[in-house]
Amino acid sequence: MSKENENQIDSKAFTEECNAVLRAVSDAQYVIGGKWKLMIIISMARGNKRFTEIQKQVSGISARVLSSELKDLEMNGLIVKKVENGYPVSIEYELLPYSHTLEEVVGAMTRWGMQHRQKIMSEGKSASDK
């Protein structure tokens, strides 16, 4: 096989791998992307189950946006909405076991976020020292 043919095959494999990675990241962003979804999941993992508890913990989120995000998370199999009939009606949200697959992602993002904050703060101090 000529060098040119080998390069075309390698290039095609690289492109297919790149496309597979891009599709996977796109799928992940669809499910957990945006400003609020992971924050809601983290809040729920810390014991917040009621709508008002979640809204209070995730500062800045409006009731309308929280409602929409909870529906998306439920649709994607990460949480379940439990309604207790009675007076008054009680509604709680619960993480499903599938949500635990995000622990590694949240851990990596937490570590990176702390590292980035420290980097920015130290760069700010270095700039003010000049």
What is the overall number of helices?
A: 5
Low-confidence region ranges? none
Structural class: mainly alpha
Quote the distance from N terminus to C terminus.
59 Å
Based on Cα principal axes, name the global outline: flat
Task: Give an overview of the whole structure.
By secondary structure, the protein is mostly helical. It is 66% helix and 9% strand. The chain contains 5 helices and 2 strands. The protein has helices at residues 3-32, 37-45, 51-57, 63-75, 103-129, and strands at residues 79-84, 90-95. It has a two-stranded antiparallel ribbon with strand order 1-2. Strand 1 and strand 2 form a beta hairpin. The longest helix has 30 residues, at 3-32. 12% of the residues are buried. The model has no long low-confidence stretch (mean pLDDT 90).
Summarize the structure.
The protein is mainly alpha-helical and 130 residues long.
Attribute tags:
two-stranded antiparallel sheet; 130 residues; single chain; 5 helices
Q: How does the SSE layout of this entry go?
A:
Elements: H1 3-32, H2 37-45, H3 51-57, H4 63-75, E1 79-84, E2 90-95, H5 103-129
Antiparallel strand pairs: 1-2
